[in-house]
Amino acid sequence: MKSTLNRSKKLIAAFAVAGLLAGCAGGADTEPSNTETDSNSGGELKPITVMMQWGIDGPEGLVLADLIAEYEAQTGNTVELTVVSGDGLDIKRTYEAAVLAGEEPDIVLTNLFASTVDWVSDGATVAVDSYVDEWGLSSVIREGALGVWDSPDGIRGFPYAGLQWPIFFNMKALGEVGIDTIPTTTDALIDASKKLRAAGYQPLAVGGNDWSGTKLFLQMVETYLDAEESKQLMAEGGFCANPKAMDGINLIRDLVSNGVFADNTEGLGYENMVALYHEEQAAMMYSGQWSFAGVPESLAKETEFGGFPLASGAAWSKPTAYNSENGVGINISQNGAANIDAVEPFVKLMFDKKWLSRFAVEASIIPVVEPDSVDPSGANDLFVQAVVDLPTRVDYIPMPDDHVPGDVINALPAAVSLAFTPGSSADKICSAVDDVYSSAG
Amino acid sequence: MTKDSSRKPSLPKSRRGMAQNLTNNRFKKVHASSASLLFSTPALAWYAFFTILPLINLFYLSMSDWGSLVSEQRFVGLEQYQRVLADGLFWTSAFHTVVQLSIAVPVMLFLGLMLAYYLTLNLPGVNLLRVLCFTPALMSISAKSMMFLGVLSPDGILNYALRSIGLEAFTTAWLANEKTSLGVIIAIDIWSGIGFTAVLLAVRLSGIPKEILEAATLDGAGHWRKIWEMSFPIMKDYFGGLFMLQFIWIASNSAAVILLLTNGGPGTSSYTLGYLIFAKAFTQQSVGYSQVAAVSLFFLGLAGMLVIRRIFRSVT
């Protein structure tokens, strides 16, 4: 079911809608920053250090490498890049250790998650409110995104990329078992799973043993909760005492017992999940926009996005999905603040329309900027779907990263893996999750 | 004629020489101890700076409310201990640690001694076996973990082997099944240490006079008796020392394997105190809590060593 509208127009329209949804339609008169002029205003610049979690050979890393080359050509300054790959926690640990040693990089590109939330109040990074205004970025970055990154201590970093977290459906595999549309109810999902298994496919792949499984668990728990109830539950715990949360956990158990998830999901990690989908052993997977660029071309053509199918009695009207404006941000350290003359042109370059567009088109980054600050023409089909089609198919529900306490969220995967283990009772699962909250105090 | 009272009574010549020797010896001892103190001072200073001070700091930090590494510390005293001791996760981890140590160390040493005895028999292929025994000790923890990930993952070698011999019913996600996860960690501990232990024990076994074992053979003693009733009593102090080393090693270092293979899960089924220290400090933003766990592990280790020492003393 491919739309016949012009893709570029759809994308631009989608960014406009995203801007409106974020409540910031007013700031339309953005001007691309003139990094060359600004950067040469001072004397000789001190080299800057940048830490990031994007792989250097991945699509984001390749674009960033070109950007760094341009920065160095424009300013005559050099950039020392440190890559800390891993599950997102590694870069935080590495950065925090560097802070303790007083050797932190000037800039760290990471998401707003776990301990990062308190970096400004802990003095590990600086608030960027004044830079946002002085560098003219308040008219580029969406106001809603700035709101997400705001805190009582100030704006915690420059919001750069958002995320979309759909279910990937391999329509070719579904078509082979006589299903032509994305399942939108859990009954349809169970039916599809049985047919897929009979045809030799694993149904829905997810990393039941890591953060991806935790996100899907919470998404399913949110099925029967409204937004405020979800936020409160995720912030405070109390799953066992919450009948609606228990309904969500029972739903998961029902799906597990009906074979919806791939075999041995409780032992799978994110990489296993991706491998199962990419090798077309599994017909569905649960991943985000960061993985769009890695989907094999032939499979990408067959992939459609949807939300997690809706159960009867759910609090939402459409299948659910997560989105967020805290996917990646540009954080400035104390060392960066001391080297701000060199940092400024780098940050401005990151928000230059040319580079925002390249990140969007080549690396499927979803910039959290005003619609006219990015030109997504040429973006791949999956990116288009995620930005244009997905919002019409799903209800976006509260994102755990924004509500689950930092000392809880990283301990959840071990507890949540029980939810995907055959034979675990709902009581046992909710107790394990509540224990994580109580242990965190 | 007055008697010179200040004059000391003269000693016989031989006694005088002895006294002189004693004085010289005392001087030499003082001199030697001063010299040894002088030479050992850098080492003692190093030890104090890098061991004693961090240990004191550990106790101080365990009484601090401290979230992530970069957050502010607040001294709360024993309140922190009250909080941790009231947490079920702490007791679960402590219980798993006791189970792990109670199984892994004795089994490793028991099998290690048997293997060591086999190595000393000098049968064909024993040199190859000696190399194989030592191989796990040469592997890094991450390499070992990757290897076991390949063996124990749902589509790993173990399940493949079980399926191929018709035992599909016994296949499971070994690392993600709460009934097997801790057992798997213990098995990896044993596998990692048994060969190394055997090689070390074989060195000591080969030092036992052959005549003793030959005499035992003539008296009709079998291998079992020669190991446990002849060799073991002779080398019990060495065995006890190795027991202690493996106890400390597993208590403090198996956390890395847990981190790489199970993350303490599923649920809390493979949490140990060693892993709890890591998890609370580096992933769950509770450095103060982790230091309480570290203090607990310290005392558990101390208690364990005293018990081991006592056991091997009583054997004497």
Model description:
The complex is a heterodimer of chains A (441) and B (316). Chain A is of the alpha/beta class and 441 residues long. Chain A has two domains: 214 residues, Periplasmic binding protein-like II (D-Maltodextrin-Binding Protein, domain 2, 3-Layer(aba) Sandwich); 157 residues, D-Maltodextrin-Binding Protein, domain 2 (3-Layer(aba) Sandwich), CATH 3.40.190. Helices cover 44% and strands 13% of the residues of chain A. Chain A contains 20 helices and eleven strands. In chain A, strands 1, 2, 3, 4, 9, 10 and 11 form a seven-stranded mixed β-sheet that branches. Chain A has a four-stranded mixed β-sheet with strand order 6-7-5-8. In chain A, α3 runs antiparallel to α16. The radius of gyration of chain A is 22 Å and the shape is globular. In chain A, 56% of the residues are buried. The N terminus of chain A is likely disordered. The longest helix of chain B is centred in the N-terminal third of the chain and has 50 residues. Chain B has 13 helices and two strands. In chain B, α4 packs across α7 and α10 runs antiparallel to α13. Chain B is mainly alpha-helical. Chain B has a two-stranded antiparallel sheet. Chain B starts with 12 loop residues before the first helix and ends with a helix. Chain B is flat and about 90 Å long. The chains are: A alpha/beta (441), B mainly alpha (316). The interface between A and B is large, with 40 and 36 residues.
| Overall helicity of chain B | over 70%
CATH class of the largest domain in chain A: Alpha Beta
Label the CATH architecture of the largest domain in chain A: 3-Layer(aba) Sandwich
**CATH fold group of the largest domain in chain A:** D-Maltodextrin-Binding Protein, domain 2
Q: Characterize the biggest β-sheet of chain A.
A: 7 strands, mixed
pLDDT averaged residue by residue of chain B: 88
Q: How would you classify the quaternary structure?
A: heterodimer
Unreliable parts of chain B: 1-6
Q: Can you tell me the overall shape of chain A?
A: globular
Number of domains of chain A: 2
Number of strands of chain A: 11
Percent of sequence in beta strands of chain B = under 5%
How many H/I helical runs of chain B? 13
Mean pLDDT of chain A: 89
State the end-to-end CA separation of chain A. Answer: 49 Å
Low-pLDDT residue spans of chain A: 1-5, 19-42
Compute the gyration radius of chain B: what is it?
Answer: 28 Å
* Strand line-up in the sheet with most strands of chain B: 1-2
Tell me roughly what share of residues is in helical segments of chain A: 40-55%
What percentage of the residues of chain A does DSSP assign to strands (E)? 5-15%
Largest sheet of chain B: 2 strands, antiparallel
